[in-house]
Specification:
This protein has about 375 residues and is α/β, with parallel strands linked by helices. About 40% of the residues lie in helices and about 15% in strands. The two termini are about 25 Å apart.
Length: about 375
């Protein structure tokens, strides 16, 4: 089976993990701060907070940004459910914005129209979560401008997009957002096995997220509120309701090692994507369109087949090609239908969900694998 995505582990990665296993700390040691510093340096952000998953990262970021019961969070339907669930975890009301038919990212026109209606209705969102689908950055400058006009916070879900850039600005720098989330699941650009991180330039936001990932507890004397003038060395305080979302040193060591090859991985994915572009030219399907100024991390290579998607998908799987679908629209999941959403609410995202097939793409893919994928796909489309 040719997998649609998989991790790429080297001896350096193994050595880094073994070094931690032989050290004094398996968790809450020096490897996590080292990884966080490397992430901040890589992206240009001031702060990084590593956690045990991107879902946890979205959750603590929402809480730190002030999302509360009765607030509104908006995201896109063509993402994994975590992009929306983070709002529900905070007691917020979740809604969606349809996608652009070319980039498959959030539609700025649809967002602007929805914001104006929400302002008149008194239901403006506290947080908007644009998703950098498949690794391509959303139009963050336009979203940031709308945030200034309508007063919402911007939380980038860049789970697909570490290593990407927009107009020369690295995703994760938070130039046009309050915070950015990365995922380090094994099929992502780099991996910590499971894991995620939040990047931000706001020191207070960083400190709150650090507490939230660790039970809401602080040992930082500068933040104590009930310690007196001379607290003992053992003193700590729970100041908020937090969670056990910590990343281990084992995971962080793997992440630090992987991060040294980020540029190599992104270049390989771009090379493979360009080759797909050429091989697919002329076939009856839609290919991804990069917006001007964007460099994609190419986490996914998604094509859209308007007729016979099911037979194409099944035929590829039967031929040993591990295609996937990204994504079934969130608002059509049974849980979200029970909240009142239905087919017809977000037509472009629904068309995308009906047509999408994710082709294999990862650094271990070679030209023979790609040729096999295209040969089978071409045969299936000709039927």
């Amino acid at each position: 089976m040719i997998a649609y995505g998989r991790q790429h582990i080297t001896q350096d990665d193994i050595d880094a993990v073994v070094a931690v296993l032989r050290s004094d700390f398996l968790t809450q040691g020096p490897a996590v701060p080292k990884f966080e510093a490397a992430l901040a340096a890589q992206t240009g952000a001031v702060h990084a907070v590593a956690v045990n998953s991107a879902t946890s990262a979205l959750h603590v970021a929402c809480l730190a940004l002030g999302l509360r019961q009765g607030d509104h969070l908006w995201t896109v339907p063509n993402s994994f459910v975590a992009s929306a669930n983070c709002g529900l975890y905070c007691g917020a009301r979740v809604d969606f914005v349809d996608i652009d038919p070319r980039t498959w990212n959030i539609s700025i026109d649809a967002l602007r129209e929805k914001l104006e209606k929400a302002r008149r209705a008194g239901t403006l969102p506290r947080i908007v979560v644009p998703v950098h689908f498949a690794g391509q950055p959303a139009d963050q400058e336009a979203i940031w401008e709308l945030a200034g006009e309508y007063g919402f916070k911007v939380l980038e879900d860049a789970s697909h997009a570490i290593g990407a850039s927009r107009n020369g600005e690295r995703v994760g720098s938070c130039r046009w957002s309050h915070a950015t989330v990365f995922s380090f699941h094994p099929v992502k650009i780099i991996t910590t096995a499971e894991g995620g991180a939040v990047l931000t330039n706001d020191a207070r936001l960083c400190a709150d997220m650090q507490m939230l990932r660790s039970h809401g507890v602080t040992r930082d004397a500068s933040r104590f509120v009930a310690a007196g003038d001379d607290p003992p060395a053992w003193h700590y305080e729970q100041q908020m309701l937090g969670f056990n979302y910590r990343m281990t040193d084992v995971q962080a060591a793997l992440g630090s090692s992987q991060l040294t090859r980020l540029c190599e991985y992104v270049e390989a994915r771009n090379r493979l994507a360009r080759r797909y572009d050429g091989l697919l030219d002329g076939l009856p399907l839609s290919r991804p369109t990069l917006a001007p100024g964007n460099v994609s991390a190419w986490h996914l290579y998604v094509v859209r087949v308007s007729h016979g998607r099911r037979s194409c998908f099944d035929g590829l799987r039967q031929a040993g090609i591990g295609v996937n679908v990204h994504y079934a629209p969130i608002h059509l999941q049974p849980y979200y239908r029970a909240l009142g959403f239905s087919r017809g609410d977000f037509p472009e995202a629904e068309r995308h969900g009906d047509e999408a097939i994710t082709l294999p793409l990862h650094p271990g893919l070679d030209s023979r694998d790609q040729d096999r994928v295209i040969r089978v796909l071409r045969e299936l489309l000709a039927r």
